[in-house]
TrEMBL record:
Protein name: ATP-dependent Clp protease proteolytic subunit
The organism of origin for this protein: Streptococcus suis
Family, per entry: Belongs to the peptidase S14 family.
InterPro entries membership: ClpP, ClpP/crotonase-like_dom_sf, ClpP/TepA
Any one of the GO BP annotations: protein quality control for misfolded or incompletely synthesized proteins
Signal peptide positions on this chain: none
Entry's Gene Ontology cellular component terms: endopeptidase Clp complex
Keyword Protease in annotation: yes
Sorted UniProt keywords: Cytoplasm, Hydrolase, Protease, Serine protease
Length: 230
């Protein structure tokens, strides 16, 4: 059984010039979760020039992720995000606030449309759908600041709940480099015909790796195991 990512929030200043943060676990506003207030407080007195942020998270609350992303993007220091394992959903949004995003070869980035659990009558559920449409615009604007394609191409990836390898993320502009290595490699040609294939061919490489890495059912399982009642 897949286990949730253990919560880990650490902040340290290795010298007067650099701060290092570890954001591991669920993005949200609750106790023992990654939240805006903890991130802001950790850097409240920092006066250096570089912030290094390590992320490993299935995601969580979209707006908490956007708040943290905007906090990083507004900092005067150079912010570098390093993905330690997975940056999915709201965690991938946080990463977009960095000046530079680096991914080791064995890590992944996952992007998808906003979703929620809901109950109520027809009128109430229609409002939930309308609210999700507005949230969708916020998510798209976040990724479009980096994404090499256009809005419709991004929407197609979001619709598929796409898992991106490090090489794929770099090729599409959603990451800047492979951590500890040089240029990203071209992904092997498996001749699959789908949205990601065509975008990889258009923006730099031929084909993507095993489609199972971005399987919707897999992410839904991981997320529900992690969030429980949410």
């Amino acid at each position: 059984m897949t286990k949730q990512i253990p919560f880990k929030f650490e902040a340290s200043v290795s010298n007067d010039d650099k701060a290092v943060l570890y954001l591991h676990g669920t993005v949200g506003g609750y106790w023992e979760e990654i939240n805006f207030e903890d991130v802001r407080n950790a850097l409240a007195s920092f006066q250096g020039n570089e912030i290094e942020v390590h992320i490993n998270s299935y995601g969580g609350d979209m707006f908490e992720g956007i708040a943290i992303k905007n906090f990083f993007s507004q900092r005067k220091e150079t912010v570098t995000v390093i993905i330690d394992g997975l940056a999915a959903s709201a965690a991938s949004i946080i990463a977009m606030g960095a000046d530079k995003i680096l991914m080791p070869k064995d890590t992944q980035l996952m992007i998808h449309n906003p979703w929620t659990f809901a109950y109520g009558n027809a009128k109430e559920l229609r409002k939930v759908a309308d609210d999700l449409d507005k949230a969708q615009v916020s998510v798209e604007e976040t990724y479009l600041k980096r994404f090499k394609g256009d809005r419709e191409e991004l929407k197609a990836l979001l619709d598929e709940e796409t898992f991106l390898t490090a090489d794929e993320a770099v090729t599409l502009g959603l990451a800047d480099g492979i951590y500890g290595e040089g240029e990203p490699e071209e992904v092997s040609n498996d001749a699959e015909n789908n949205v990601l294939d065509s975008l990889m061919a258009k923006y730099g490489t031929d084909e993507h790796e095993d489609k199972g890495k971005r399987n919707i059912e897999r992410f839904a399982f991981l997320f529900t195991q992690k969030r429980g009642e949410q």
